Amino acid sequence: MMTNNWNMLGHEWAVDMLHQHAARGDVRHAYLFCGPPGLGRRTLALRLAQALNCTQPISAGIPCGQCRDCKQIERMQHPDMNLIQAETEGGTLKVDQVREVQRSLSLKPYQAKYRVALFLRFQEANDNAANALLKTLEEAPAHAILLLTADNPEQLLPTIVSRCEILRLRPLPVSIIETDLLERGVEEERARLISHISGGRPGYARKLIDDITLLEKREERLDDLQTLLPALRVEKFSYADKLSKDKDGMRQTILIWLSYWRDVMLRVAQADTPLINIDRNMEIEFLASRLDLSTVRHVVSELESALEKMERNVNSRLLAEVLLLDWPKI
Description:
By secondary structure, this protein is an alpha/beta fold. 55% of the residues lie in helices and 8% in strands.
């Protein structure tokens, strides 16, 4: 049975606002859920779709989670729901995918009150797809609701953002994630580590529990980082070549390295913010004692820039080489 907070962990203010919209029938035609992946953007969007289309609500705006419509929406397999996303994370969402939805949204709902189009990771849409969505937003019929997720609104066309109700979701306190993991039966030390690594993202924390290989890959990539710091140029070139052969793997590696270097930056700046990579505290302290703030800030900004360039399909191998050669030699 669904709780008043729609079975969400945290984000009470967002649930409360959406609950009011659904309960009063004061629903907007488009919503944009923003924040880092694994935060609950998609889950919140699905809960709103359930609240709007549930046939046996517990009370106004609170879906039951058990009726046929609720279950089909949860599985993202509802006949009145379209799911639109790039084929792979870090891929490209294309214009044909948006045009296909335009046709379907023009039809009356088959079994529910609203037709719902769920656009995941819309920052991955190419220019033509983004312009096609703008047209859809301008011409959407009253029975259609468009739900978008993206890392942040600044990645999208301002004209799209201005036509959506924006919900900027923030990471949760690490202690809330840890408590949730303990309640799920996760052993204490593991729960503490995962809650920190998750960076306050409940979805990512649960993913780390469910898929043991994610923690193993993280361990490997952080070990590689340690090996690369004192490595010779030829070794860095060789690693860059290997890294660039798998674009999605390279993206994941850069995200892990970025969390590590941000920890180093926090330590150099003597900030009170808790570390993400708490199991690497000794290494982080060691690096922080040997580097100054501008050097570390430069590494962080180059990693952030590399992620943006990967989205623009810049040559991956060249990107990896420049990144590694630019690191301080320890």
